[in-house]
Amino acid sequence: MAKKYVVGVDIGGTNIRTALINLDGDIVSKVKNATGKEPLSVLYKQLDTVYAPHAREVCGIGIAVAGLIDREGGVVMKSPNIPKLNSVNLAAEIKKRYKTCIAVENDANAAACGEKCAGAGKEFKNFVMLTLGTGIGGGVIIDKKLLPVAAEIGHMSINIDGPQCPCGNVGCLELYASATAIIGTAVSELEKGKSSILKNSVYF
To answer: What is the end-to-end Cα distance of the chain in Å, rounded?
Structure first.
Protein backbone atom coordinates (compact mmCIF):
# COMPACT_ATOMS: atom_id res chain seq x y z
CA MET A 1 0.00 0.00 0.00
CA ALA A 2 1.45 3.35 -1.10
CA LYS A 3 2.23 5.93 1.53
CA LYS A 4 -0.05 8.96 1.67
CA TYR A 5 0.85 12.49 2.68
CA VAL A 6 -0.59 15.96 3.13
CA VAL A 7 1.22 19.27 2.74
CA GLY A 8 0.85 22.03 5.30
CA VAL A 9 1.75 25.64 4.53
CA ASP A 10 1.98 28.60 6.90
CA ILE A 11 2.19 31.96 5.13
CA GLY A 12 3.17 34.59 7.68
CA GLY A 13 4.22 38.21 7.46
CA THR A 14 7.87 37.29 8.06
CA ASN A 15 8.32 33.69 6.90
CA ILE A 16 6.64 30.99 4.83
CA ARG A 17 6.93 27.41 6.06
CA THR A 18 5.93 24.32 4.11
CA ALA A 19 5.97 20.73 5.39
CA LEU A 20 5.26 17.27 4.03
CA ILE A 21 3.36 15.28 6.68
CA ASN A 22 2.36 11.63 6.74
CA LEU A 23 -1.08 10.49 7.86
CA ASP A 24 0.25 9.72 11.35
CA GLY A 25 1.04 13.40 11.76
CA ASP A 26 4.81 13.05 11.44
CA ILE A 27 6.76 15.73 9.56
CA VAL A 28 8.70 14.04 6.77
CA SER A 29 10.36 17.13 5.32
CA LYS A 30 10.04 20.90 5.72
CA VAL A 31 11.38 24.17 4.37
CA LYS A 32 11.34 27.78 5.56
CA ASN A 33 12.06 31.02 3.70
CA ALA A 34 11.45 34.73 4.21
CA THR A 35 8.07 35.85 2.85
CA GLY A 36 9.63 38.77 0.98
CA LYS A 37 7.84 40.92 -1.56
CA GLU A 38 6.67 38.02 -3.76
CA PRO A 39 5.08 35.46 -1.41
CA LEU A 40 3.56 33.39 -4.22
CA SER A 41 6.95 32.91 -5.86
CA VAL A 42 8.41 31.78 -2.53
CA LEU A 43 5.49 29.40 -2.01
CA TYR A 44 5.85 27.87 -5.49
CA LYS A 45 9.54 27.19 -4.87
CA GLN A 46 8.74 25.50 -1.58
CA LEU A 47 5.98 23.37 -3.08
CA ASP A 48 8.30 22.37 -5.93
CA THR A 49 10.70 21.12 -3.25
CA VAL A 50 8.25 19.48 -0.82
CA TYR A 51 5.17 18.51 -2.85
CA ALA A 52 6.45 17.75 -6.33
CA PRO A 53 8.57 14.65 -5.51
CA HIS A 54 5.54 13.02 -3.84
CA ALA A 55 2.73 14.47 -5.98
CA ARG A 56 1.00 11.13 -6.58
CA GLU A 57 0.92 10.35 -2.86
CA VAL A 58 -0.26 13.77 -1.63
CA CYS A 59 -3.95 13.90 -0.68
CA GLY A 60 -4.15 17.67 -0.40
CA ILE A 61 -2.51 20.98 0.50
CA GLY A 62 -3.67 23.04 3.46
CA ILE A 63 -2.64 26.69 3.48
CA ALA A 64 -2.83 28.92 6.55
CA VAL A 65 -2.65 32.67 5.88
CA ALA A 66 -2.62 35.63 8.24
CA GLY A 67 -5.71 37.69 7.39
CA LEU A 68 -9.39 37.58 6.48
CA ILE A 69 -10.13 34.47 4.41
CA ASP A 70 -13.08 33.39 2.29
CA ARG A 71 -12.57 29.76 3.18
CA GLU A 72 -15.22 28.42 0.74
CA GLY A 73 -13.77 30.33 -2.21
CA GLY A 74 -10.15 30.02 -1.09
CA VAL A 75 -9.69 33.79 -1.39
CA VAL A 76 -7.44 35.96 0.76
CA MET A 77 -9.77 38.92 1.24
CA LYS A 78 -7.35 41.09 3.22
CA SER A 79 -3.99 40.40 4.81
CA PRO A 80 -2.65 43.53 6.57
CA ASN A 81 0.87 42.13 6.91
CA ILE A 82 0.99 40.50 3.45
CA PRO A 83 -0.78 43.03 1.17
CA LYS A 84 0.52 41.29 -1.96
CA LEU A 85 -2.07 38.57 -1.30
CA ASN A 86 -5.05 40.89 -0.89
CA SER A 87 -7.99 39.72 -3.06
CA VAL A 88 -5.97 36.77 -4.42
CA ASN A 89 -7.88 33.53 -5.02
CA LEU A 90 -5.08 31.50 -3.50
CA ALA A 91 -6.79 28.13 -3.90
CA ALA A 92 -7.35 28.69 -7.63
CA GLU A 93 -3.80 29.96 -8.19
CA ILE A 94 -2.22 26.99 -6.42
CA LYS A 95 -4.48 24.48 -8.17
CA LYS A 96 -3.28 25.71 -11.56
CA ARG A 97 0.15 24.25 -10.79
CA TYR A 98 -0.52 21.50 -8.28
CA LYS A 99 -3.41 19.19 -9.13
CA THR A 100 -4.72 18.23 -5.71
CA CYS A 101 -7.29 19.30 -3.15
CA ILE A 102 -6.54 22.81 -1.77
CA ALA A 103 -7.86 24.30 1.47
CA VAL A 104 -7.18 27.88 2.61
CA GLU A 105 -7.80 29.03 6.19
CA ASN A 106 -6.92 31.89 8.52
CA ASP A 107 -3.63 31.02 10.23
CA ALA A 108 -4.88 31.36 13.79
CA ASN A 109 -7.96 29.27 13.00
CA ALA A 110 -5.71 26.60 11.51
CA ALA A 111 -3.53 26.69 14.63
CA ALA A 112 -6.58 26.34 16.86
CA CYS A 113 -7.75 23.31 14.86
CA GLY A 114 -4.28 21.80 15.13
CA GLU A 115 -4.20 22.23 18.90
CA LYS A 116 -7.70 20.75 19.18
CA CYS A 117 -6.83 17.71 17.08
CA ALA A 118 -3.31 16.95 18.25
CA GLY A 119 -2.07 19.52 20.75
CA ALA A 120 -2.71 21.27 24.03
CA GLY A 121 -6.41 21.75 23.30
CA LYS A 122 -7.35 18.07 22.97
CA GLU A 123 -8.89 17.86 26.44
CA PHE A 124 -10.85 21.13 26.25
CA LYS A 125 -14.30 21.83 24.78
CA ASN A 126 -13.77 25.59 24.68
CA PHE A 127 -10.60 27.65 24.34
CA VAL A 128 -9.00 30.62 22.58
CA MET A 129 -5.77 30.14 20.66
CA LEU A 130 -3.45 33.18 20.36
CA THR A 131 -0.79 33.34 17.67
CA LEU A 132 2.03 35.77 18.44
CA GLY A 133 4.47 36.74 15.72
CA THR A 134 4.68 39.41 13.04
CA GLY A 135 1.11 40.19 14.09
CA ILE A 136 -1.34 38.81 16.66
CA GLY A 137 -4.11 36.42 15.68
CA GLY A 138 -6.71 34.34 17.43
CA GLY A 139 -8.73 31.18 16.82
CA VAL A 140 -11.74 30.21 18.93
CA ILE A 141 -12.96 26.68 19.69
CA ILE A 142 -16.50 26.44 21.11
CA ASP A 143 -18.07 23.10 22.02
CA LYS A 144 -15.14 21.32 20.31
CA LYS A 145 -15.76 23.13 17.02
CA LEU A 146 -13.99 26.02 15.33
CA LEU A 147 -15.84 29.30 15.39
CA PRO A 148 -15.85 29.94 11.62
CA VAL A 149 -14.66 33.54 11.68
CA ALA A 150 -11.26 35.22 11.77
CA ALA A 151 -11.17 36.45 15.37
CA GLU A 152 -8.35 38.91 14.50
CA ILE A 153 -7.68 39.62 18.16
CA GLY A 154 -4.63 41.64 17.18
CA HIS A 155 -6.87 44.17 15.45
CA MET A 156 -8.95 45.04 18.50
CA SER A 157 -8.42 48.71 19.30
CA ILE A 158 -6.88 49.22 22.75
CA ASN A 159 -5.99 52.90 22.28
CA ILE A 160 -8.49 55.15 20.55
CA ASP A 161 -5.78 57.81 20.21
CA GLY A 162 -3.19 55.35 18.90
CA PRO A 163 -1.53 55.21 15.47
CA GLN A 164 -3.32 53.87 12.42
CA CYS A 165 -2.83 50.19 11.68
CA PRO A 166 -2.41 48.78 8.14
CA CYS A 167 -5.84 47.18 8.64
CA GLY A 168 -7.42 50.66 8.78
CA ASN A 169 -8.25 50.62 12.48
CA VAL A 170 -6.42 52.74 15.07
CA GLY A 171 -4.55 51.68 18.21
CA CYS A 172 -4.68 47.95 17.43
CA LEU A 173 -3.26 45.50 19.97
CA GLU A 174 -0.64 44.21 17.55
CA LEU A 175 0.78 47.73 17.15
CA TYR A 176 1.92 47.37 20.76
CA ALA A 177 2.35 43.67 21.55
CA SER A 178 3.38 41.83 18.36
CA ALA A 179 6.99 40.83 17.69
CA THR A 180 7.16 43.59 15.07
CA ALA A 181 5.95 46.21 17.54
CA ILE A 182 8.21 45.07 20.38
CA ILE A 183 11.31 45.09 18.17
CA GLY A 184 10.35 48.48 16.75
CA THR A 185 9.89 49.96 20.22
CA ALA A 186 13.23 48.57 21.40
CA VAL A 187 15.10 49.96 18.38
CA SER A 188 13.43 53.34 18.79
CA GLU A 189 14.38 53.58 22.48
CA LEU A 190 17.98 52.55 21.78
CA GLU A 191 18.26 55.15 19.05
CA LYS A 192 17.13 57.74 21.59
CA GLY A 193 20.00 56.71 23.87
CA LYS A 194 18.14 54.42 26.27
CA SER A 195 20.53 52.34 28.43
CA SER A 196 20.15 48.62 27.75
CA ILE A 197 22.15 45.39 27.53
CA LEU A 198 20.70 45.12 24.00
CA LYS A 199 23.34 47.63 22.91
CA ASN A 200 25.88 44.82 23.21
CA SER A 201 23.97 42.75 20.67
CA VAL A 202 25.41 42.36 17.19
CA TYR A 203 22.03 43.48 15.84
CA PHE A 204 22.60 46.97 17.16
So the answer is: 55
Fold of 111-191: Nucleotidyltransferase; domain 5 (3.30.420)
The CATH class, in words, for 5-107 is: alpha beta
What is the C-alpha separation between 204 and 195, in angstroms, rounded?
Answer: 13
Nearest CA to 101 out of 3, 12, 4 is that of 4
Q: How many Å apart are CA 104 and CA 106, to the nearest integer?
A: 7
Is the dihedral angle over the CA atoms 168, 85, 110, 179 positive or is it negative?
negative
Closest listed residue to residue 69, CA positions, set 91, 49, 48: 91
The 10s digit of each residue's pLDDT in 110-137 is: 999 999 998 999 999 999 999 988 889 8
Distance (Å, rounded) from C-alpha 12 to C-alpha 35? 7
The dihedral built from the CA positions of residue 170, 176, 181 and 186, taken in this order, carries a sign that is positive
pLDDT in tens, 40-90: 999 999 999 999 999 999 999 999 998 889 999 999 999 988 999 999 999
Q: How far apart are CA 22 and CA 202, in angstroms?
A: 40
How far apart, in whole angstroms, are the C-alpha atoms of residue 5 and residue 27? 10
User: How many Å apart are CA 199 and CA 193, to the nearest integer?
Assistant: 10
- Return the amino acid letter for 83: P
C-alpha span between 6 and 27 (Å, rounded): 10
